[in-house]
Write a structure and sequence with these properties.
Chain lengths: 250, 181
Amino acid sequence: MRERRATVDVSFDGVEYEAYADESVMDASRRLGIGIPSLCYLEGLSVWGGCRMCVVQIAEDHRLRPACATPVAPDMEIHTDTPQLRAHRKAITELLFAEGNHVCAVCVVNGNCELQDVAVDTGMDHVRFDYQSPQREIDASHPKYIFDPNRCIVCTRCVRVCHEIEGAHVWDVAYRGSEAVLVTGMNQPWGTVDSCTWCGKCVAVCPTGALAYQGRAVGEMQHQTDIVIRLAMARNKGEWIDPAELEEMR
Amino acid sequence: MSDKARVATVWLGGCSGCHMSFLDMDEFLFDFAERADLVYSPIADVKDFPEDVDVTLVEGAIANEDNLELARIVRANTTTVVSFGDCAVSGNVTAMRNPLGDPENVLVPVYVDAVDRNPVVPSEEGIVPPLMPQVLPVHRVIDVDVYLPGCPPDADKIKRAVTALLDAEPLVERGTDIQFG
């Protein structure tokens, strides 16, 4: 018989809850139905903690922590929605928009985009920073998919899903800091990478329009993070999924 | 002196889609006309931007020197400046040339390389305004009071914003009222 999972008492925004002792603040919040905005986090994949959208405040500690990479602790007082956190999340969103070339009006995921949704949630009605307008080349060499780094926020979901779930490790991050960019294979055109299995999990989990099916027009692209979350969670639990269930989700 | 609000709309570097959306307010335009005078607009035959304007909706980004000049005139003569639509708010499609750098990198392929007859970049001092080195959102060149994103902002959204401004109520925009695209 499986051991009962140990629990700890925590509070979210002043309300007491019971959390599992071995889960993160993010996982507890999701399970308890508390909305913490996030971008790079994806249930079932390893934690990256790169986007900083999910920052929370623990009690009076002035140092903000990413909910996804912070384990719960006994009697933890978690604040998810303070004026300071709202200001930070809005600023982060503005920086993301300023960093790449995000033009919702001409994007394949217009209306189905997690970045666009975050902008709405954080109340971003304009960007206070200078747009960087980087020049980045689109990789359309793959017969089935297309990668537009102009729309990439380097959340690394594609890197993680390809490595951890598909086991192909086609994707990786090259260069550092503001130069960081997603690459395929040995930094070669995606269509020439033999290890790509064409499974499409990277496309399914992309939060923006950076990864899409070829031939989709504005607003026509829908990502399918739900399928990958189902796969990843089942894999973590060692559970078998009936292919019919996946077919239904498609 | 009429007690109607003095409202203006201007069309800078954009496609006029925001103005089309404005006209999409349909019968509300009658209510609007009861309460406001449209003192300057691409759909009104007025040559010079007037003084003492209460609200100006600015469509489009700052793409050329004429846009810059008009934006400054708008600011000097308007109480409440509204950045109207994605091009005004973010640069949007108008700013898609920015990654290419110098405007020549766009003008030459379009007006010289791609044409057979009379390949020349149009220029006429005082008539054809030179392009800005980079397309800028309106708030990068003048102070903006209200942001109304959307490509275009749909008519209901404009109606809510215009009504709030005419009622001199604080414009509380939330949810998809501030969605880009």
